[in-house]
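re: ur question from yesterday

yeah so i grabbed the chain u mentioned. its 259 aa long if i counted rite. heres the sequnce exactly as i have it in my notes:
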Amino acid sequence: MSNLEELFLNISIGLSTPDKSFIDGNDLKRDIINHMPKLNKFVFSIHSNLDVDDLTHLPSNEDIQRTFKGLEDYQIISYIHYLPDDQIGQCHIYSQPYTMNYLYRLTNSFPGGLFKFVHKVSLYDEYPFEHEFFIRIAQSFPLLGTLSIDNQSPQNHKQCQHLNKDHRNLPVIKYSHLTLLCLDMAHDDYIEQFLIDTKACLSNYISLSVYYPSLQKVTNNFTRDKTRINCAKVNYIYDIDKLNLPQHFHTYFPYVEKF
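ran it thru and got these structure tokens back, copy pasting raw so excuse formatting
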């Protein structure tokens, strides 16, 4: 390992011992960098998840940033997010430029940036994802091909989502390269977020993983005009062959194969 010149690391670590904090720059130096004197390329994404019942004793993002002193050769981004229902604190540290093709379990605290190589992303949170968050995701991942969402919290600003805080129109979000959309762990609001044509513009040939009763509800039993355009771009729905579909389903999803 001491002769290693390049290292690509993507890990998620659960920490439950009371004397342990998040993985930070001190851990990187002590456990990795100091043991690899020939290392000249280190690309990483590290999630550390800490069981917490008292948020007051947890480090801040500024505390984490201070541990990167001595690592000026690396551009390291960090953010901290707390999930009170799960009683979990999460710290995500990653290098820039980021050349791996996936990033997982991003939350509302994700600061954005430009990730030209990433095409697989998963989102998870207990707090709602609003329209402006999805704008940030689309801008950060211009080649986004696979997106999965795990969030059961309804959106707070759904009724005024077409306007931002300055009362300007929010743009329709274009997903030019998206081919796989996984919404089976998402609240119905996020199905609307991607199927209503004033919120999202999908690419053609989308594979969709979704809870069928939710899809039926969001599309008003496959009659809703606002979701018709994006539904016509779907060519595969997982496990749809196991269901008893209404006759007009294939008019609403004309490119989904009939079984």
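noticed a couple things. The chain has two domains: 1-99, 101-259. also The helical segments are 25-31, 61-66, 131-140, 188-195, 212-218, 228-231, 249-252.
anyway ttyl
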